[in-house]
Amino acid sequence: DAMVIQNPRYQVTQFGKPVTLSCSQTLNHNVMYWYQQKSSQAPKLLFHYYDKDFNNEADTPDNFQSRRPNTSFCFLDIRSPGLGDAAMYLCATGVLRDGETQYFGPGTRLLVL
Amino acid sequence: AQSVTQPDIHITVSEGASLELRCNYSYGATPYLFWYVQSPGQGLQLLLKYFSGDTLVQGIKGFEAEFKRSQSSFNLRKPSVHWSDAAEYFCAVGAPEYGNKLVFGAGTILRVKS
């Protein structure tokens, strides 16, 4: 089945230690999104790639970076995680057509110690 | 910019009872509207969406939603709730000039009592 996969599902890191979260897709969608979802809150868009074009949200901290080496994979890098970065990180894919659905992965739960 | 309000943070219904989850949006024209469901520790699953056409939209798992332009609402309904429907429900809005980016409401947590 075509799907969005996120690895790992749970990630524990230390304060200030860089961490990378992975997302892959078999849907061949040209857009990939990263959302941050803190406990009991709505998902908040961090950035998205349209093909290789990177689009950062205005309020996304510089501590968050992303890479998309090819259509299938996208990575979220947190350069120096703080306690406030503990959250669920959701990857989604889509196509840039009006009203198109975004398809979400299962998420990676990040814990910062 | 578009915005979404889900007025109910928590809702509890009895199994077999009907359900309505409220969603109001703010946007100058007709947006794209979505309902997603999230089980604990899981990603978001699309229940249904409104893009254009018939304002009553059918989705998966027996859910439906009605777009009411005059009320800027897109309420989610189910005639008979099952215990497995307990989850968090998010309404989201997208707008053409913002590409495919979604803005989510704060979510409504549904609890089903037997």
Can you describe this structure?
The complex is a heterodimer of chains A (113) and B (114). Chain A is mainly β and 113 residues long. Chain A has strands spanning 4-7, 10-13, 19-25, 31-37, 44-50, 53-56, 64-67, 73-78, 87-94, 103-104, 108-112. In chain A, the strands form two sheets. In chain A, strands 2, 4, 5, 6, 9, 10 and 11 form a seven-stranded mixed β-sheet that branches. Chain A has a four-stranded antiparallel β-sheet with strand order 1-3-8-7, with no helix packed on it. Chain A is globular, with a radius of gyration of 13 Å. The model of chain A has no long low-confidence stretch (mean pLDDT 92). By secondary structure, chain B is mostly beta strands. Chain B has strands at residues 3-5, 10-14, 19-21, 24-26, 32-38, 44-50, 56-58, 64-68, 73-78, 87-94, 102-104, 108-113. The model of chain B has no long low-confidence stretch (mean pLDDT 92).
Please report the distance between the alpha carbons of the first and last residues of chain B: 41 Å
Query: Mind summarizing the main beta sheet of chain B?
Result: 6 strands, mixed
- Report the total helices of chain B: 0
Mean pLDDT of chain B: 92
Number of strands of chain A: 11
Report the uncertain regions of chain A: none
Measure the end-to-end span of chain A. Answer: 36 Å
Strand content of chain A: over 45%
Rounded to the nearest angstrom, the radius of gyration of chain A is 13 Å
* Largest sheet features of chain A: 7 strands, mixed
What is the radius of gyration of chain B?
Answer: 14 Å
Biggest interchain interface, per-side counts: A-B, 29 and 23 residues
Please tally the helical runs of chain A, counting DSSP H or I stretches of 4 or more residues.
0
Mean pLDDT of chain A: 92
